[in-house]
Amino acid sequence: MTVHEFKVEMTCGGCASAVERVLGKLGDKVEKVSINLDEKTVTVTSNLSSDELLEQLRKSGKTTSYIGVKQ
């Protein structure tokens, strides 16, 4: 499993919930999701590629960019 970090424009709990909801649709392809609303970052542990995760995150309607693999 790889831990990917993304920057997502989130301003409230509702935004964070939207992100959780779209990632939840990936089911068991995602092991863990961690959202930091203050820093506007989303960390995803998954075997999916960063491109696949980025595409899914953009379905939340939020501006999203890939930061990189988190060590």
UniProtKB/TrEMBL annotation:
Residues 1-65 form the HMA domain. GO terms for cellular component: cytosol. CDD domains: HMA. Pfam families: HMA. GO terms for molecular function: copper chaperone activity; metal ion binding. Transmembrane segments: none annotated. Keywords: Chaperone, Copper, Copper transport, Ion transport, Metal-binding, Transport. GO terms for biological process: copper ion transport. Belongs to the ATX1 family. Homodimer. Interacts with ATP7B. Interacts with ATP7A. Interacts (via dimer form) with SLC31A1 (via C-terminal domain); this interaction improves ATOX1 stability and controls intracellular Cu(I) levels. Binds and deliver cytosolic copper to the copper ATPase proteins. May be important in cellular antioxidant defense. This is Copper transport protein ATOX1. It comes from Drosophila busckii (Fruit fly). The lineage of its organism: Eukaryota, Metazoa, Ecdysozoa, Arthropoda, Hexapoda.
